[in-house]
Amino acid sequence: MLSNKIACFLALVLPLIAVAAADPTTRVTIHEDERFCLLLPPSPGSDIADSLEESVSYCTSRTPQVRYANDMPSGFIKTHHYAPALDLSYSQVTGTIDPAAFSLSTSDSGGMASRELPSGAQCIGYRYFIQFVEPDAGVFCLRCCHRESDCPTDQSDKGCKIVIPGDYS
Fold first, then answer.
1. How would you list the strands of the sheet with 70-71, edge to edge?
2. Sign of CA dihedral 70, 57, 91, 124
3. pLDDT digits 0-9 by tens, 18-45
4. What is the pTM of this model?
């Protein structure tokens, strides 16, 4: 009986410890349509894939759960479309970017961030996430998931439009 109580306690507490231990500069989030955070290189002009391990949070507006985030560069997000799953198993935001607003090369094919890279990254309120920023295609996507199967990190070479279908207009 005691072991069941301990197991229940650990099931409730361990996720909270993981959130507290995560690097506060590598958090992403989606708060409905207007507020979201992405992971980008720590300084403008860096290659997305080459700087994934050093990526830091950039938010469209102040977000309490991502206190140490940078402001999203003005004009970087051109369009964005919020779309939660009907069963609320995930939320996603997709859209277009202006690579020049962050001095990104239009020949940079981008890269994928997830809870594995950068180390300790997380999406607030979800267990999994997957994010692509593709300067060469002028698109970005972020999906935060409760189920691992909704965030297929094994398809890193396929990009936004295949891995995270959505509105990229």
1. 70-71, 56-59, 35-40, 27-31, 122-123
2. negative
3. 444 455 678 888 877 678 999 999 999 9
4. 0.84
